[in-house]
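Exercise: predict the fold of this chain.
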Amino acid sequence: MSGKGMAFGGIGTVVILLVAFLLGVDPRKLLSGGDTSPAPGTQATRPLNPEEEELRDFSSSILAKTEDVWGEVFRKAGQQYRAPKLVIFDGRIQSPCGLSSSAAGPFYCPGDQKVYIDLSFYRELKTRFRAPGDFAQAYVIAHEVGHHIQNLVGTMDKVTAMQARADKREGNDLSVRLELQADFYAGVWAHYIQKQGLLEAGDVEEALGAATAIGDDTLQKETQGYVVPDSFTHGSAQQRMRWFQRGLETGDIRQGDTFSARSP
């Protein structure tokens, strides 16, 4: 998952932290795109049944909450936040990041700055990954929005450039650090949601359960029965939980430097 045309964050040493943006570095201009949304900020590739419409509306509401939080963070920095769009697809979809399928999980495409989710993944999260709950689903969206933040502030481009010069092992390590930072940003979002009193009992546990379920080590044990750390691209369950929790506990974007950490 490298290259500007690739998708980062399916369920994508230098660092350009969000703090650099907050100190006055302008984000790259967002690419324009049409919106034929059936819900604010959301578009679907086919008509949805009632159950899917409910999931779509829930996803739209979470996207709106991420816009509220990051909009305020950017506003305090004297900048304007432009939220990503949410695309609901079924099975396979073509985007500027290429042809993707639901098997790859949710992803963020920097080419059009949209978050792509096949609603069937929510069912897999509950059944296959044993990570049920609304906030588990919210964590997935917040993680992909974390990639959008990385795209805005330049981190994604810097990592892509590093990966182009790296061997496979180094490239995987950079991918892991990028993913863990997106987990951290999801935690920062949850921090502010919690301060607003919008979290219910058990919500954090649901998010941590999702982070655990989609850790590289968890998935490798499930699919092949053993773990190969050098092949990780998203991070172990423990790493993903730790960085999400750091964001949740601190709410401080300066604490999210996954790239400088000796062992993320």
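Check your answer against the key: The first strand starts at residue 42 and ends at 44.
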